[in-house]
Amino acid sequence: MSSKENLPDTAYVAFLADLKARIGRARLSAARAVNRELLELYWDIGLAIKEKQTSHGWGEAVVENVARDLLAAYPGNTGFSASNLWRMRQAIDVYTAPDFLAQLVREAGAQEGVATDGLSSPEGLAQAVRDLVVDVPWGHHVNVLMKVADPAARLYYLKGSARFGWSRAVLLNQVKGQAYERTRAEGKSHNFPSVLPEHLAEQAEEALKSSYNLEFLGLGQAVLERELEARLIERLRDFILELGYGFCWIGQQHRLTLGNKEYFVDLLFYHRFLRSLVAVELKVGPFEPEYAGKMDFYLNLLNEKERGPGDEPSIGIILCAEKDNLEVEFSLKTKANPIGVAEYRLQSQLPAALQGKLPTPEQLDAAVRSVLPAKRRR
């Protein structure tokens, strides 16, 4: 067959779509299998540490010792760090605690058509917990263990992650948006918000890139939750314009160029009173130091290419789901441009007389909280 042979359009399109669907299913299945193996390993490590502490009377030092020796045997694998081993140990305590197990039994008994016979024995209940744990990526467990204290809420977020394939960023925003509390208020004890449409082609890509332990898979960084981000950006744009501080709308996904490359700023405003361009970047996950560097780069481009005669230096605002103030402070130390991060104060380079003309940290945080959706439509 000649490489230049024209194939029937409809037949080829259908054939290619079928291949892509099969590849997507295979990749997602492979990622899930790898994730289950990793979670089985982490569960066994946490359980083994607890059993040795109980039977041999070992104290907390065993975790530090095991971490040191495992890192020596597997250098560069942060999955065996002391902090991660502590999380494994904590997971055993939390997910085998009587209140968590009781909640699991109650919810199973309340669901129609769900067999609960297997939960009547300690062995069956232990297996049910293990099955739930290995269906959820480890990064999700870390978030649930750190940010959620109520057993019923923990179970809710774990089941939601397993059922709907929430990525880590979506889970974080569900927790921050108090999805569990709103579900209870609405009287829907056993129904989860439909956050991600099923069978999306990008779901396999997302599972491979962000839902699973990246070090274990040897893969790159997570893709954005595009739909969630788009909704938040749209609502934040309207919120900022309604503040009445002199913001003038320029554009969304504003295009900047440097050489042959293109860059896009989430939101770009011009502030009449500050006489400055104001760039806003939204991150649906936690703050990372590289966000400050990227914003600084954008501001340099704006100052060089779009700043008008007589304008003040451009200002950057980074809104993220959560942040560590110390990490933010060190990330901004060497930045020449004025940058603010959610609750964090603007850099000292911004004149004090102008700071009152921007939204306050509390207003920015309120904006983020107010637009976190409890549900996303299919």
From TrEMBL:
It comes from the Bacteria. The keyword Electron transport does not apply. Keywords: Plasmid. Residues 19-182 form the YhcG N-terminal domain. Residues 206-359 form the YhcG PDDEXK nuclease domain. This is PDDEXK nuclease domain-containing protein.
